[in-house]
Amino acid sequence: MDIRGLSSDAVWDHENAFYWFSPPSRIAKQLAHWELYKRIVGLPGHVVELGVYKAASLIRWCTFREMLENAHARKVIGFDAFGAFPVAGDARPEDVDFVKRFEAAGATACRGTKWRRSSPPSVSTTWTLRPAT
Predict the structure, then answer these.
(1) All structural domains of the chain with their residue ranges
(2) Residue 77: predicted pLDDT
(3) Which DSSP string do the residues of 49-60 spell out, in sequence order?
(4) Which residue from 69, 65, 68, 85 is spatially nearest to 125, judged by alpha carbons?
(5) Which of 40, 77, 70, 74 is nearest to 55 (CA)?
(6) 113, pLDDT greater than 90
(7) Which InterPro entries match (predicted)?
(8) Quick check: 114 pLDDT over 50?
(9) CA dihedral 37, 43, 66, 3 (to 10 degrees)
(10) What is the pTM of this model?
(11) Which residues contact residue 4 at a Cβ distance below 8 angstroms, ignoring those fewer than 6 apart?
């Protein structure tokens, strides 16, 4: 399977590259998410991510759910604008500046795509990126 130029045939190379080239803050974010998820095990409710971007955290939440609970323990829900941020006419200048910097850094890279399950929810929590139709 190929997603965004990455092949599942080279999964170990991709994993190694992540550790070789990522700053420590990337692994720290994973550990922080792990610790947060551990705190909700046994509590009612769902996981909601606002601002999915490229879905790395969303996939991470699904993975942690399967590791610490099971694939049906709770819903993992992601929301995103899937494109340019809408900016209100009365937005503060610093907010408009943030949106411009964020989008210039590649935030619109996923425009025109949708995340969909690759198999029924009862079987897997694997997500794949497919062109929007």
Answers:
(1) 2-131
(2) 94
(3) EE--TTSHHHHH
(4) 65
(5) 77
(6) no
(7) SAM-dependent_MTases_sf
(8) no
(9) -60
(10) 0.68
(11) 129
